[in-house]
Request: fold
Amino acid sequence: METQAISPDPATATRLDLKEVVQELLKCGFIGSDRKPNVFATAMRLRNEINAALEPLDLALRLDELRGLAILCVAESASASPDEEWGHPLVRRQRLTIEQSLLVAILRQFYVIQEQETGIGVSEIKVPVEDLLAELGGFLGDTGSDAKNEQRLLTLLDQLKPHGIVSEPDKNRDITIRPLIAHLANPETLTTLLAHFRHLADKPASTP
Reply:
């Protein structure tokens, strides 16, 4: 039996600009003013209406006006306590490997240092592949092959691209770090991770 589509009542239908923002947030998880300035402007203007539309889903809008970001997040009222398992039915917790987490920490460090020098704003930061190779190699060690070192980095970058925080190398062998990196992970957690890897890197190799 075919199911007939139900036409919404024009008097109660959600306005189109609000729909556009909510649907974009549900689709991508964030809206950047650099790529969709009009949609971001609508998110700024309709923030209360957007939160009202997201509330039944236990989701909320977080705005980073300085970096030009609108981010979909789980509402604080629905966040699980540290002793509870993750249980939001619509949001899957992103789990990164140790190497991916390390690269996120390195990328975030590059981004924050640049922000400290130029000020927080809507900008993408470019980092040469060679700089990332040197930093990553300092923690993970040298594979013994320049080609393998670079392939390890490029593989990790490719795995992080769906998160919207980084690009693949351009023709000048530069990586673009996008503002969303500032929100991907807790700064304290990343600092602890870097400290742990620094400890391992400084630890003398055991002799047989």
In short: Residues 16-78 form a domain with the Aspartate Aminotransferase, domain 1 fold (CATH 3.90.1150). Residues 76 and 208 are 51 Å apart (CA to CA). The chain has a mean pLDDT of 81. The chain has two domains: 16-78, 98-202.
